[in-house]
Write a structure and sequence with these properties.
By secondary structure, the chain is α/β, with parallel strands linked by helices. It has five helices and five strands; from the N terminus they run H-E-H-E-H-E-H-E-E-H. The protein starts with a helix and ends with a helix.
C-alpha cells in the first residue's frame, strides 16, 4: 500500500504535467484558429478555379497535355503530408495507416513533415524527397513539392501521383484521405457548400460563360501547373488546421484527465491520512486503558 509521501509525490508530479499540457493547449488553441481560417478561406478560390477549369476543359476540345496523360500504373509516387511533432492524438496514426496500404515495392514517397519521413525510413520504403513546411504554410513551399512531383511524372519515373493528407472537417473531426494529383484527367473538384476539401471527382459545372484568349487550349496548358500548385497548397493548409485542432483537443483531454487524477489521488491521500490518524488514536487509547 502506498504511503502518504508517495501519494504526495504523485500529486505533485501530475500537477506539473497538467501545467505543461495546459500551456500546450493554449498555444495550440491560438495557432488552431489561424490555421482553420487559412484553410477555410482557401476553399472558395478552389471552387472558382474548378468552375473555370470546367469551362476551359469543355472549350479546349481534343486538347492534350503531358500532365493529363494516362498511363498504366507500374510505378507510383505518394506525397505524404504529416506533422513534424507528435502529441496530436491519433492524427498521424490514421494518416500513416493509409500510407501503409500502398505497395512498398512499386511506390516512392515524397514526405512533407518529419513523422511521414520517419515512418518511411522505419518501414524501409523508398524516400524520393523530404520537404518541410511552416506553421503557416507558404505557397512557395507547396510549389516546390508540386514541382518535384510533376517532374517525376513528366520524366516517366512514375505513372501516377497520389496525395495522403488529413482533411480538416471541424475542430473535433479530421479525416485521413487519399487524393489523386496526377494525371489530372478527371480533375478533383471542390463542391460548393460541402464541408472539407476535395470532395467529388468531377468538375463542377458553372452557369457563367467564359471567353478565353488566345484560346482555351493555351489557357488550359498554362493553368494546369498552377492548379496543381494550389491543390498541394490547400492540402498543406488542411493538414496544418487538422494538426493544431487535434493537438488542442488532445492536450485538453490530457489536462482534464490530470485534474481528475489529482482529485482521485487527493481523496486517496485524505483517506489514508485519516486512517493513520485513527490508528494512532486507537493506539494511544489502548495504551492509556492498559495502564489503568
Amino acid at each position: 500500500m502506498a504511503s502518504t509521501r508517495d501519494i504526495r509525490r504523485r500529486i505533485r508530479s501530475v500537477k506539473n504535467t497538467s501545467q505543461i499540457t495546459k500551456a500546450m493547449q493554449m498555444v495550440a488553441s491560438s495557432k488552431m484558429r489561424k490555421a482553420q481560417m487559412a484553410a477555410i478561406s482557401g476553399r472558395p478560390y478552389a471552387v472558382l478555379m474548378n468552375e473555370v477549369l470546367s469551362a476551359v476543359t469543355e472549350g479546349a476540345g481534343d486538347f492534350s497535355h503531358p500532365l493529363m496523360q494516362k498511363r498504366t500504373v507500374r510505378k507510383r509516387a505518394v506525397i505524404v503530408i504529416s506533422t513534424d511533432k507528435g502529441l496530436c492524438g491519433a492524427l498521424n496514426s490514421n494518416l500513416l495507416r493509409e500510407v501503409a496500404h500502398f505497395d512498398k515495392d512499386t511506390t516512392v514517397y515524397i514526405c512533407a513533415g518529419r513523422k511521414g519521413s520517419q515512418f518511411v525510413a522505419r518501414t524501409q520504403r523508398q524516400l524520393a524527397a523530404e520537404f518541410t513546411y511552416k506553421d503557416a504554410p507558404q505557397f512557395v513551399e507547396a510549389r516546390a513539392i508540386s514541382k518535384f512531383a510533376q517532374d517525376l511524372f513528366l520524366k516517366g519515373n512514375v505513372d501516377q501521383v497520389d496525395v495522403v493528407y488529413t482533411n480538416f472537417i471541424n475542430t473535433l473531426s479530421q479525416k485521413a484521405e487519399v487524393r489523386q494529383l496526377l494525371p489530372i484527367g478527371e480533375i478533383v473538384a471542390v463542391e460548393a457548400g460541402v464541408s472539407g476539401h476535395g470532395e467529388g471527382t468531377a468538375l463542377k459545372k458553372s452557369d457563367k460563360e467564359y471567353l478565353f484568349e488566345p484560346g482555351a487550349g493555351e489557357v488550359l496548358g498554362n493553368l494546369l501547373p498552377h492548379y496543381l500548385n494550389f491543390q498541394v497548397f490547400q492540402f498543406l493548409l488542411e493538414a496544418k488546421a487538422s494538426e493544431h485542432s487535434a493537438r488542442m483537443v488532445a492536450m485538453k483531454n490530457a489536462t482534464d484527465n490530470a485534474k481528475q487524477m489529482i482529485k482521485d489521488l487527493t481523496l486517496e491521500y485524505n483517506k489514508l491520512r485519516q486512517a493513520n490518524i485513527t490508528k494512532e488514536l486507537l493506539e494511544i487509547t489502548s495504551a492509556a486503558m492498559a495502564m489503568g
